[in-house]
């Protein structure tokens, strides 16, 4: 029995493929530029192994040109080109990747700069093209060839004239339709922005003729429009640069350029990780809370690049919700992309990166807290609320990550304190971490319940936000010290003696208390003698786990 190869209706297959795998048409530009970059990379690798060749960086570039009249977009490169056989194989067989083969043949282990691997990117051009023409001359051949196809009826290859080694891809753009505007690929601004968006960090110059206004030669008063060749990509991504060569201003400029916020970054983290999964990242802590931060509209996420090519604008999986305020980019060569290169195939690497990033952010925050308290407090003003929510989320699964990052107002020194600082200076006989809840610092200070605790010389944390008490209820304790509301029934302050005295006083006045209780019937649960009052005659206290403030909030919540 012979096994027969599958026949395929290639025209339909091509159509289906290109229209189903890419979410946006403009991606074809990214794909063609990536191919051009790969072709130049191959020249570079060739020069590494061939002594007769030298790789002079200036000779290698990618150029985008438009022909308005003929509605053509032309992408030229000075890369390795293709022989007739290579044309046949690489552009004639769908899903055949010459680049993947190149990587394997040359055993380029760190050949991670070569982008191609699926053998389909080129055909994405048919999303925008009526037909595509390729002129190419290989470094291994003196004869150039022309490849042409309308994407439907197959392709033709014939010898052609081309002087220099490299490839020229001509996209004959489709006519506009009601839904689709193909003219925009002829617009220099639009093109430039697409290149910037997806291919800014391609390592070779991407050139374009851009119109600029300049003073006329004969009359300086007037300006004229002239074409000027510009390099539109930044080439070396800032995250690949050495930290030591970068200044705060560089990072700030990047933050602004990326529109991460209107503010300045409070601090940044620049990572170059070479572990189980390799990646580079630049992360920013913003200074201010984005206006929509605590709303449903806010979308967390980092930009995700694979080898300098943009894959996802906002990859939410890279950040836990409680660090959702972090902005920045991640670039990894170890991602397994899906065929459209817009998504990931496995999230194993992503999970590893996310975990790693989470820890780095945590460490950075701890360092900031230790070394630049003022800055940390600015940060905490903006995002402390988020950290407290973070503790409460997922049934406290993250509490160990976050508990040391919390700050609370305190009765001591009227400044924000950490739980560690609180516990550190607790007198030996103090059993609990005390807290009091209220609308503001001043109001809490006037609560009758605080007096007794303060009198003992104990510090009290002042909770002014709804979330404060919920967060510590989730934490339950810190370094084995339980939290206790100053409004709780038993404050754990009295000595045995005092307790006994209290009990006997209670007995003596039993009738009085019963009388008061009857008078207040239904409004209070019990009436007792209190030891915690000094200047105030009476106070309300909560019996059990929920403080009066918390009860109020719970009552406001919809069922
Ligand atoms: P991939 O880039 O994933 O390999 P493509 O469909 O984009 O798939 O390209 C198919 C193959 O065509 C590439 O692997 C490469 O061998 C060849 N090719 C495409 N464009 C060029 C170019 N500009 N110069 C040289 N070879 C090219
Ligand atoms: Mg490709």
Automatic annotation (TrEMBL):
Location(s) in or outside the cell = Cytoplasm
GO molecular-function term, one example from the UniProt record: unfolded protein binding
Q: Which UniProt keywords apply?
A: ATP-binding, Chaperone, Cytoplasm, Nucleotide-binding, Stress response
Q: List, alphabetically, the GO terms of the cellular component aspect.
A: cytoplasm
Q: Which InterPro entries does its entry note?
A: HATPase_C_sf, HSP90_C, Hsp90_fam, Hsp90_N, Ribosomal_Su5_D2-typ_SF
Q: Which domain of life is it from?
A: Bacteria
Q: Which Gene3D superfamilies match?
A: 3.30.230.80, 3.40.50.11260, Heat shock protein 90, C-terminal domain (1.20.120.790), Histidine kinase-like ATPase, C-terminal domain (3.30.565.10)
Name the residues that bind ATP.
31, 35, 77, 82, 90, 96-98, 117-122, 167, 341
Q: Which residues form a coiled coil?
A: none
- Annotated region described as A, given as residue ranges: 1-341
Record bears the keyword ATP-binding: yes
PANTHER family according to UniProt: HEAT SHOCK PROTEIN 90 FAMILY MEMBER
Q: What does this protein do?
A: Molecular chaperone. Has ATPase activity.
Entry similarity comment: Belongs to the heat shock protein 90 family.
| Quaternary assembly | Homodimer.
Q: Please identify the protein, giving its name as recorded.
A: Chaperone protein HtpG
What is the species listed in this Swiss-Prot or TrEMBL entry? Sinobaca qinghaiensis
Q: Which gene encodes it?
A: htpG
């Amino acid at each position: 029995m012979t096994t027969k190869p599958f026949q395929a209706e290639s025209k339909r297959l091509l159509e289906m493929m290109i229209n189903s795998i890419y979410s946006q048409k403009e991606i074809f530009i990214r794909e063609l530029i990536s191919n051009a970059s790969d072709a130049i990379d191959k020249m570079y690798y060739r020069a590494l192994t061939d002594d007769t060749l030298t790789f002079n960086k200036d000779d290698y570039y990618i150029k985008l040109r438009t022909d308005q009249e003929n509605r053509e977009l032309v992408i030229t490169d000075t890369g390795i080109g293709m022989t007739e056989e290579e044309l046949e194989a690489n552009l004639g067989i769908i899903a055949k990747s010459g680049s993947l083969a190149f990587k394997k043949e040359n055993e380029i282990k760190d050949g991670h700069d070569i982008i191609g691997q699926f053998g389909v990117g080129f055909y994405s051009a048919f999303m925008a093209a009526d037909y595509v023409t390729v002129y190419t001359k290989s470094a291994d051949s003196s004869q150039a060839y022309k490849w042409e196809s309308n994407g439907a009826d197959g392709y033709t290859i014939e010898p052609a004239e081309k002087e220099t080694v490299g490839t020229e891809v001509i996209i004959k753009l489709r006519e506009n339709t009601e839904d689709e505007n193909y003219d925009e690929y002829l617009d220099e601004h639009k093109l430039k922005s697409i290149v910037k968006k997806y291919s800014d960090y391609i390592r070779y110059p991407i050139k374009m003729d851009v119109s600029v206004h300049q003073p006329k030669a004969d009359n300086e008063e007037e300006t004229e429009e002239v074409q000027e060749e510009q390099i539109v990509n930044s080439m070396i991504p800032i995250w690949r640069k050495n930290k030591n060569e970068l200044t705060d201003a560089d990072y700030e400029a990047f933050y602004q350029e990326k529109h991460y916020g209107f503010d300045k970054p409070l601090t940044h983290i620049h990572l170059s990780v070479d572990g189980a999964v390799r990646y580079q990242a630049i992360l920013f802590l913003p200074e201010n809370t984005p206006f929509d931060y605590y709303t449903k509209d806010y979308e967390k996420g980092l930009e995700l690049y694979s080898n300098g090519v943009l894959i996802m604008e906002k990859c939410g999986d890279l950040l836990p919700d409680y660090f959702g305020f972090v902005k920045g980019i991640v670039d990894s060569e170890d991602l397994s992309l899906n065929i459209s290169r817009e998504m990931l195939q496995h999230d194993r690497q992503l999970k590893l990166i996310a975990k790693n990033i989470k820890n780095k952010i945590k460490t950075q925050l701890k360092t900031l807290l230790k070394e630049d308290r003022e800055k940390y407090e600015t940060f905490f003003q903006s995002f402390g609320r988020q950290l407290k929510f973070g503790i409460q989320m997922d049934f406290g699964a993250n509490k160990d990550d976050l508990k040391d990052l919390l700050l609370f107002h305190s009765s001591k020194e009227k400044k924000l304190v950490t739980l560690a600082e609180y516990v550190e200076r607790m007198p030996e006989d103090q059993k609990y971490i005390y807290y009091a809840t209220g609308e503001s610092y001043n109001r809490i200070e006037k609560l009758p319940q605080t007096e007794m605790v303060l009198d003992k010389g104990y510090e009290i944390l002042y909770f002014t936000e709804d979330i404060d008490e919920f967060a510590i209820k989730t934490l339950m304790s810190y370094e084995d010290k339980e939290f206790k509301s100053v409004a709780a029934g038993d404050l754990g302050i009295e000595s045995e003696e005092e307790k006994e005295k209290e009990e006997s006083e209670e007995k003596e006045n039993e009738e009085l208390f019963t009388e008061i209780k009857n008078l207040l019937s239904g409004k209070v649960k019990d009436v007792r003698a209190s030891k915690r009052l000094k200047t105030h005659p009476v106070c309300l206290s909560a019996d059990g786990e929920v403080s009066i403030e918390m009860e109020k909030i719970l009552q406001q919540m919809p069922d």
